[in-house]
Amino acid sequence: MEIVSSVNELREKIMTWKKQGRKTGFVPTMGYLHEGHLSLVRESKRRSGVTVVSIFVNPKQFGPAEDYKVYPRDLERDRALLQREGVDLIFYPPVEVMYPEGYKTYVEVEDLQDRLCGKSRPGHFRGVCTVVLKLFNLVQPDEAYFGWKDAQQVIILRKMVEDLNLPVKIVPLPLVRDHDGLALSSRNTYLSPDERRAALVLKKSLDLAERLILDGEKDAHKVREKMIELIAAEPLARIDYVEVVNLNNLEPVEKLEGEALIALAVIIGRTRLIDNLRITSGGIEK
Amino acid sequence: MEIVSSVNELREKIMTWKKQGRKTGFVPTMGYLHEGHLSLVRESKRRSGVTVVSIFVNPKQFGPAEDYKVYPRDLERDRALLQREGVDLIFYPPVEVMYPEGYKTYVEVEDLQDRLCGKSRPGHFRGVCTVVLKLFNLVQPDEAYFGWKDAQQVIILRKMVEDLNLPVKIVPLPLVRDHDGLALSSRNTYLSPDERRAALVLKKSLDLAERLILDGEKDAHKVREKMIELIAAEPLARIDYVEVVNLNNLEPVEKLEGEALIALAVIIGRTRLIDNLRITSGGIEK
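Output (structure tokens, whole complex):
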């Protein structure tokens, strides 16, 4: 496994593999890897001839008051984990390689970027789309793997790929949870023991939603209210949003029939956590 | 020579050529071709194994009060011209193939897009960048050819390619003029005989600038004033802008030393025409 930090080194490796006709799988990450990331890596290994993982904490997707500076980083740990999984290449660029002085180009997916997390994190998805497009152009993967944990991100990137005619397939994979049900996130490391217990309220509210839906509840408003009620009873939790939306265009839905996304963001102490549940023709996934 | 209108047909052809390892040259156009376009096609033919030309009048780069609907179109004429040049493929997509219902994704090059033509044509370069990025993703060319006629477009697209790490090289080629000096443009067809004569004032003002500079004038302000004076004396002409700017960042320059761009837009009757002169280490080009 190689670690490269420069665009030229990366391009050289990619070109060699392209010429060999090897299918490239790509897992873009911000590092501080957990089992969620590793599940993406394993699927890429299973489906591709070559697996590339990028580790880059992207400043453009953090707001000025957000946690860019303190976002957890541990390259040595990440390297060991990816080595064990048999990853072929880690792309680990410094910020000035991705955004040299005078950088000016941005990609936006209108409307979708302003909903759900976009409301409280303006500019976030613009930053995500821009860095992912850059990474796609550099790595030129056949497939790129993302977790349903970040459902809005998956939906926006899928739209970007479709709209821009990018020759890459977005492969979303199931959210991975800890033994107690908490959705894995690099940000879970911010939680104190009390907060960690309180954070389970996200998953509990989704469990409640699932039960209501399985019992036949079709009124999205009622499901949402019950979830909010449950979360409000947790003193350490402050709701950012709880929404029931269309799984493609993220517009609020009134009636639960067909595909839908129930997504929520809750601030526990000072840590903003997200979780979601998807209703598809295949059933309820969370 | 084939004409294809669908993304799938195009992708199939491109894939075949890629597998054969043929270098692809690409000339994106809005059709109604003139010698300016054909000079790009010839350079692509000279440098590439395969030459693809797109013909697409891009609605996203026209403002609501602009000439999208009346922009000249003549596919049969264009087809004959490109056939004669030995072009391999014309991509001629309908609008709904490029922008299906619900299209939402846009690319912007901040700052550069707001200068010169961007001031009077808000959204124009956003539309240009978006369609060119889409076409690059579809055609996957090694090189793409653009005329210096649209100097700001060249500078913005070069920046987009650099910022987004696109694996394509922008090749700008000299502006082509008619026998009387008027810069070739599909929009020249809008001009009445009187307007056509008046339109020569753009080139004349650049000739004047060149003479002043060759005579040692270093004050950008003075050069600009003389040009404006000359154009103002033409009753059919109305100045949109005359600017002397840095050739890379398009910021106004005070002193003419090193590289610079003198660009102007003038409305003749109801037709907006542009022209420019570039000062580089190689001398003055116009």
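Residues 193-214 of chain A form the longest helix (22 residues).
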